Amino acid sequence: MWINKNNKLHKKPYLCVQKIGLYFGQQPVYYTLKFMSTIPSFENTKVAFSHKSNNELRKAYYLFRVMNNNTVVSAGSVLTNWALRLHLPIGGIIKPTVYQQFCGGETLEKSSPTIAQLAKYDVKVLLDYGVEAKESEQDFDQTVDSLLQAIAYAKGNDNVSAISCKITGLAKFKLLEKYTAGKELSEKQKIAWERTRQRLHVLCKAADAANVSIYFDAEESWIQIALDTLITEMMETYNTKRAVVYNTIQLYRHDRLAFLKKSHNDAHAKQYVLGVKLVRGAYMEKERKRAAEMGYPSPIQPDKQATDADYDRALEYCIQHLDTICFCNASHNEMSNLYLCELMGRYNLATNDDRITFGQLYGMSDHLSFNLADAGYNVAKYLPYGPLRDVMPYLMRRAQENTSVAGQMSRELKLIQKEMIRRGLRY
Ligand SMILES: Cc1cc2nc3c(=O)[nH]c(=O)nc-3n(C[C@H](O)[C@H](O)[C@H](O)COP(=O)(O)OP(=O)(O)OC[C@H]3O[C@@H](n4cnc5c(N)ncnc54)[C@H](O)[C@@H]3O)c2cc1C
Question: What is the pTM of this model?
Fold first, then answer.
């Protein structure tokens, strides 16, 4: 019972008592949660940063300190965009800093040392070929080739949990938008839609044959019906025995808990396994802005509490239907991760139940990933890789995410600082 897949003995569960504060309005209400757990504590920075040498920790500290400065990040983003457009050689600055913190390497081979280093701590990876929003058929075919290489790399490689894919790297945004709007496609677009379907079949078939899973990202709501249609067809075809294909559910949308349940009912009726990655959602401002500008009701929940509540309900729904659902809890929210551990305990599930994965981004929230892995849970880091130019939009989002909120230190910076103090390092 307490031996994980690598035959490592895990700590026995103990009674875990967590005091949590929930905000209903301005003031927090504190609750005491008591449950049997194998989670030591997300506060344990010794475990969280055990994979980093003193020098690596110092480097991460300086990087997050720079990113904590809103002015530097805003100016840096503008300058980097210009430099990229003018083909200026900025790799020398970006590669040893932001790129190294958040990406594996320019190729799969170059990412291998990072993957091996994480594996020492039982942390796997979700390979994310960092290409976004391409526009030509040639680019799309190139993306398919790169993803097939990722599947081949993942085949038989215990350190790779799954590969990840954005459909906007395989089809034109305008095509997906028109399909989602329910408009009649032109003859040319019908052919392009067919080609997209075939690209997805090629990928999912290869993943199935290689015993690898493939996660499809959720994107903007105005293309999501097209993505859901394609992904559902792939699940119906390839998930008959196991979850080869995973869709992503964004719980910041008020209609997605119902969509999760509908997807599950459909899967149940057609007898395939539903694979889902649960996320809160990454495009909130963009969604609200478009809805306001175009005068339709925003698809986003009224507030953060509503998103959190649906996220919890989605976790619970998945746990209650594990006979036909496999899922990934893709979140950096401490409460969500803790809540899932608590649910797994409540439903008497082994910490390493292979239907459940905890996912965080590489370079962030190590206090969650490494403490969860240390306690025996299945953990995978989303590891982007690819040429610097292609992963730049992703890196910009990470930098913006780590700027200070109301002048406070970012969570990452606080944690690194805490570990430096524990190790007696100067900063
Ligand atoms: C492994 C991994 C894979 C991911 N894949 C995807 C993906 O495919 N598609 C995608 O869209 N995102 C994806 N994300 C990003 C994710 O959706 C979130 O943006 C990010 O993880 C922050 O949410 P959180 O759960 O970590 O925690 P938190 O920091 O607790 O939540 C922040 C999130 O809450 C929501 N929120 C914040 N304020 C409000 C408000 N006022 N009203 C309503 N909601 C609010 C927003 O979604 C915001 O991003 C992924 C994240 C991870 C870790």
Answer: 0.90
